[in-house]
Amino acid sequence: MALRIGLVGIGKIARDQHIPALSANGRFALAACASRHARIDGVANFPDLESMLAGVPDLQCISICTPPQAHFDAALLALRAGKHVMLEKPPAASVRQIELLAGEAERRGLTLFQTWHSRFAAGVDAAREWMRTRPLKGGRITWKEDVHFWHPGQRWIWEPGGFGVFDPGINALSLLTEVLASEVCVERASLEFPENQQSPIAAALLLRTAHGATIDAEFDFRQKGEQSWDIELQTGSGNLRLSRGGAGLAIDGKTVMLDEGMAGEYPRLYQRFADLCESGSSEVDIRPFQLVADAFLVGARRIVAPHVI
Fold first, then answer.
1. What is the gyration radius of the CA atoms in the chain, in angstroms?
2. Nearest-5° angle of CA 152, CA 157, CA 160?
3. Which of 101, 139, 103 is nearest to 235 (CA)?
4. Hey, which residues are catalytic here?
């Protein structure tokens, strides 16, 4: 029997990814949505999570797609109502919040799936396996996109807790921590803040593994034309390149995997959520979140030109 699921937050990511993935997955039945400003045809619609839980009490799962500043209260409410929870990335507004949610889910025997959708891209499994026995010598992350295209008119991303350029940048860090065989930390960072905003528009990080290899990371929200979501890793026995956010994989310049449409991430994400719900287990990995928090802690701050939303 399909798991009855409610969707909280009907914005761009919900319409582009979550709703199509749920519609194609027979293990879920989308029964309700909660949004202050949007409605979805064919399901029960509510202005907020509280009224959705009261109006459709037999929901088994809640998927939260709101901005990260609202994740903690919504997830806590859903868990306390006895529902399994899936969180869109970034997982919360602070590291401590996601730790508290993980503890709440464990105490109640419920699933908390704190997602990193880029880890479900087509090239990631093969990249992780290839890197497993190869010591890293060095690497580079180039993660640049046009904020006006991907976040049109969205103010929350520039507010405190909105992550700025780390909203997409955390995807790169989730891939890096997934494929590397050794742990990594932030050694230095430089963050560029528009003079009229509270979150960075660009950032440069120097990351270092536990074995001393370094990775330069560059994130920028001002990219025009072709978008860049690439990770290059050098080892003593070959070089690996993840492109298109993990949808493409090349080894020593030869293409191994390429998902042209980058369409598989969210279907695989919901397959994983169904598995976790059925087993009653959770999946929480805060390492990418910790790297972003550490970048803010150690990063030098530079004020740049104003950004018009």
1. 19
2. 155
3. 139
4. 89
User: For the chain, how are helix, strand and coil distributed in percent, rounded to 5?
Assistant: 35, 30, 35
What DSSP letter does each residue of 68-121 carry, written as one string? Answer: GGGHHHHHHHHHHTT-EEEEPSS--SSHHHHHHHHHHHHHHT--EEE--GGGGS
The residues near 95 (Cβ < 8 Å, ≥ 6 apart) are 286, 289, 290, 293
Which CATH superfamily hosts domain 119-264+293-304?
Answer: Dihydrodipicolinate Reductase; domain 2 (3.30.360.10)
- Going from the first residue of the chain to its last (309 residues), give the mean pLDDT of each consecutive group of 10, the final group possibly shorter: 96 94 96 95 96 98 96 98 97 95 97 97 96 96 97 94 96 98 97 98 97 97 96 97 96 90 84 96 97 98 96
- Give the CATH class of 3-114: alpha beta
Alpha-carbon distances, residue 203 vs 57, 90, 295 (angstroms): 44, 17, 9
Distance CA 154, CA 68 (A): 13
Is the CB of residue 34 less than 8 Å from the CB of residue 9? Answer: yes
Q: Which residues contact 20 (CB under 8 A, 6 or more apart)?
A: 266
58: which 2 tokens?
Answer: 């037999």
Domain boundaries, the chain: 3-114, 119-264+293-304
pTM, two decimals, is 0.95
Q: Which is nearest to 6 in space by CA: 67, 69, 75, 68?
A: 75
End-to-end, the C-alpha distance of the chain in Å comes to 44
Going 270 to 271 to 272 to 275, the CA torsion angle's sign is positive
